[in-house]
């Protein structure tokens, strides 16, 4: 393949990856879908492709849908141990963030809500809300009618927005929220954590990457007790972590987050969903398989001083 053809694909790589990530919720799977699209780009007779961007979008979208529909994927996600792969703010795979809809579509909360959609509804929602494709363009990409695209979009939007009451948090507020959370969690007083949570708060975690099933909690008191237990340092925890982690405030998938790091290796993240100036949901991710790209991005950046230098 000539240099111009490679350059044409590379110019679209980040956009294609962000489409695939929103559809699949996995950076690793998104990278695989984009690589498969590149192989097809290599093999196709490009002289007959009038609009390369449209052709590549169609290919990567349908490759992603094939993965969502596969028996293996359905089985893995049906057993209740699936969480989206968190990404650090500024990661190009997060894609456009110019509108509220674009920023909202990549939050962990919405990525998990989209699991309830059919693959076709998920694709229409992503292409419409995050990338502003017209229904005519979506119909061409997905080989459906324009009216079908509109119907899928309506159903998807209804399902997602019905359960979304969060609001955006600016950069300064992000650090204040995470500081308050970390301070309360490390104080040993669960009532301080309870005061930060909404009455209907929920929590979900992969159990420090060791649980066979996702851990799900509701009720502020139970969540506060679990967070406090997790924050309590012990020699066994430090040994398992490979050292004494530093705790940082960050933005992950557009939401305030706490990141635990040892020697530039991310051990885990807690992502906070904010509603009415309180924490409505906590999502904990610590499985190594879900933190590879976030760790890679973390190592490339400079960071603010940690909230806790040595835990």
Structural notes for this entry:
The protein has 311 residues and is an alpha+beta fold. The protein folds into two domains: 3-161, Butyryl-CoA Dehydrogenase, subunit A, domain 3; 171-299, Roll (Nuclear Transport Factor 2, Chain: A). The chain contains 14 helices and six strands. The protein has helices at 3-24, 27-43, 52-69, 71-78, 100-104, 108-113, 119-130, 135-142, 146-161, 171-185, 190-196, 220-231, 235-241, 292-299; strands at 197-205, 215-218, 246-252, 255-262, 265-275, 278-285. A six-stranded mixed beta sheet has the order 2-1-6-5-4-3, sandwiched between helices. A hairpin with a 2-residue loop joins β5 (265-275) and β6 (278-285). α1 (3-24) packs parallel to α3 (52-69) and α8 crosses α9 (146-161). The longest helix is centred in the N-terminal third of the chain and has 22 residues, at 3-24. The chain is globular and about 65 Å long. The model has no long low-confidence stretch (mean pLDDT 91).
Taken together, the total number of domains comes to: 2
What is the string of helix and strand elements?
A: HHHHHHHHHHHEEHHEEEEH
Order of neighbouring strands in the sheet with most strands: 2-1-6-5-4-3
The fraction of residues assigned to DSSP E strands is 15-25%
Secondary-structure class: alpha+beta
Oligomer: single chain
Highest-level CATH class of the largest domain:
Mainly Alpha
Q: Just name the CATH architecture of the largest domain.
A: Up-down Bundle
């Amino acid at each position: 393949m000539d240099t111009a053809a490679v350059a044409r694909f590379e110019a679209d790589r980040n956009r294609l990856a962000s489409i695939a990530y929103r559809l699949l919720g996995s950076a690793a799977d998104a990278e695989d879908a984009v690589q498969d699209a590149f192989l097809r780009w290599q093999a196709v007779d490009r002289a007959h492709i009038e609009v390369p961007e449209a052709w590549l979008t169609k290919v990567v979208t349908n490759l992603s849908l094939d993965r969502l529909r596969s028996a293996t994927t359905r089985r893995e996600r049906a057993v209740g141990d699936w969480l989206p792969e968190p990404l650090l703010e500024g990661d190009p795979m997060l894609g456009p963030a110019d509108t509220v809809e674009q920023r909202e579509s990549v939050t962990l909360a919405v990525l998990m809500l989209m699991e309830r959609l059919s693959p076709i509804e998920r694709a229409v929602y992503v292409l419409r809300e995050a990338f502003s494709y017209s229904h005519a363009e979506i119909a061409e990409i997905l080989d459906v009618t324009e009216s079908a695209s509109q119907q899928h979009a309506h159903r998807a939007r209804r399902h997602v927005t019905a359960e979304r009451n969060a609001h955006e948090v600016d950069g300064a507020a992000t650090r204040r929220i995470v500081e308050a959370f970390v301070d309360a969690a490390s104080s040993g007083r669960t009532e301080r954590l309870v005061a930060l949570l909404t009455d209907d708060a929920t929590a979900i975690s992969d159990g420090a990457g060791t649980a066979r099933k996702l851990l799900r909690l509701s009720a502020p008191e139970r969540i506060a007790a679990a967070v406090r237990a997790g924050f309590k340092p012990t020699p066994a925890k430090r040994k398992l972590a490979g050292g004494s982690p530093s705790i940082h405030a960050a933005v992950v998938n557009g939401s305030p987050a706490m990141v635990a790091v040892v020697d530039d290796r991310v051990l885990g993240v807690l992502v906070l969903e904010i509603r009415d100036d309180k924490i409505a949901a906590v999502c904990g991710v610590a499985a190594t398989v879900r933190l590879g790209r976030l760790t890679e991005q973390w190592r490339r950046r400079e960071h603010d001083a940690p909230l806790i230098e040595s835990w």
